[in-house]
């Protein structure tokens, strides 16, 4: 597949890295020579130093032979221009990164960019907002991804409770003690991601990831030492676009306080967010948090434009007893560091956007793609076709790649956590966790 990416920022770079691993034909366009040189030294992609909104530059990149054009610069107007011109010049499919939420929720009679020829719109702010909502629906987890309309869930748990029953047990011992089928799909230990096998052991401070049905999830949470917390009161720090959208969305379900350091913005938010209590102040100050009853908060969400502020305020909230903390970070290098020092979930909007765009490249047998925060791996949901290799034998006899594991199977209205003697059938939907170097091998089983 020939793909043009306009914009060599973090979204473009991460996306190019994902696609380069897939051996796609990638051309990356940007006006910044230094950034392109950095990428050329690290990725097997073509680069073009030019303004991607220029028809001349797009023609130079062979836009007429392009299967997918991805406009992912930092400028919304530039992205829209690139998408429209690129489609006019022959790109088969265009994906445009936008920041204005109005473009995503056009009602009847409203103007829509899709009517002009752009095929897909991606909003990093909207993706983060919905990610936050999903994490709050299942307290105690660092990640939560639904498959098959919620029939199966992949959840991440930080094993920090020293009395958690699962600790210091192998996968086999844990499955026997749990009394149910236990399906771990990954363990992140420090900076390393492991595919668990029968003799793999769960240790203190591990991030463990499991596939579970909704009805089995409460038992799994108890087994991993996570008591159920009923989320009622939430504090959001930062009146950014994400902060505003999150407050608006969450106020329908929870009691929400929004803390913003800019006084004028506070007056504006108070008018626009009538269901939210808006507070003027600096959330890094312990006295302010105590005055606003931080001890009564069930969740603390920091989404200012400054990663360090978000990290520090979450750490303060955690030290004051808040059970669930979520921080927005711009620098992807912070993700491992911050989780290891006590913050429950780190969200990077550029990583979310790149991963969301990536799923359009994989359309076909792949129904859904999920990513875990801080884990360099993918969760893929495949629909099994007739005569696929995956249907030929029970799982244990397939020779499935070492760097991957089958975590769940959806068959009609039933969900299964398959063991070695399970045989996959045509029409099944299969959830696979895979490290990057095993993706190609996994895909061959579903062709």
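Sequence proposed for the structure above (447 residues):
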């Amino acid at each position: 597949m020939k793909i043009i990416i306009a914009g060599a920022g973090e979204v473009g770079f991460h996306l190019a890295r994902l696609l380069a691993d897939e051996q796609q034909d990638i051309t990356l366009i940007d006006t910044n020579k230094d950034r392109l040189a950095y990428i050329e030294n690290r990725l097997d992609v073509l680069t073009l130093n030019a303004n991607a909104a220029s028809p001349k530059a797009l023609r130079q990149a062979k836009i007429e032979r392009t299967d997918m054009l991805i406009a992912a610069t930092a400028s919304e107007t530039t992205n829209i221009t690139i998408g429209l011109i690129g489609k006019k010049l022959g790109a088969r499919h265009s994906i445009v990164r936008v920041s204005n939420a109005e473009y995503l929720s056009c009602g009847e009679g409203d103007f829509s960019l899709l009517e002009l020829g752009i095929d897909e719109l991606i909003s990093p702010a909207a993706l983060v907002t919905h990610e936050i909502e999903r994490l709050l629906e299942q307290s105690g987890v660092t990640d939560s991804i639904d498959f098959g309309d919620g029939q199966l869930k992949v959840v991440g748990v930080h094993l920090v409770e020293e009395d958690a029953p699962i600790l210091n047990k192998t996968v086999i011992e844990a499955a026997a003690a749990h009394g149910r089928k236990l399906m771990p799909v990954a363990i992140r230990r420090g900076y390393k991601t492991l595919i668990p096998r029968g003799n793999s052991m769960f240790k203190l401070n591990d991030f463990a990831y499991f596939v579970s049905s909704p009805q089995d999830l409460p038992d799994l949470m108890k087994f991993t030492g996570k008591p159920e917390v009923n989320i009622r009161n939430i504090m959001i720090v930062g009146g950014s676009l994400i902060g505003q959208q999150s407050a608006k969305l969450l106020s329908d379900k929870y009691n929400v306080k929004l803390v913003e350091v800019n006084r004028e913005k506070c007056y504006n938010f108070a008018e626009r967010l009538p269901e939210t209590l808006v507070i003027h102040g600096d959330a890094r100050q312990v006295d302010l948090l105590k005055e606003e009853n931080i001890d009564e908060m069930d969740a603390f969400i920091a989404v200012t434009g400054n990663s360090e502020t978000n990290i520090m305020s979450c750490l303060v909230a955690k030290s004051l007893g808040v059970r669930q903390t979520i921080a927005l970070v711009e620098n992807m290098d912070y993700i491992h560091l911050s989780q290891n020092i006590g913050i429950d979930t780190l969200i990077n909007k550029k990583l979310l956007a790149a991963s969301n765009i990536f799923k359009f490249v994989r359309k076909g047998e792949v129904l859904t793609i999920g990513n875990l925060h801080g884990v360099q791996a993918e969760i893929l949901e495949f629909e099994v076709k007739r005569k696929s290799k995956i249907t030929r034998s029970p799982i244990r006899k397939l020779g499935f790649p070492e760097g991957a594991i089958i975590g769940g199977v959806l068959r009609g209205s039933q969900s299964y956590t398959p063991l070695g003697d399970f045989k996959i059938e045509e029409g099944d939907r299969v959830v696979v966790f895979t490290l990057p170097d095993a993706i190609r091998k996994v895909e061959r089983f579903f062709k």
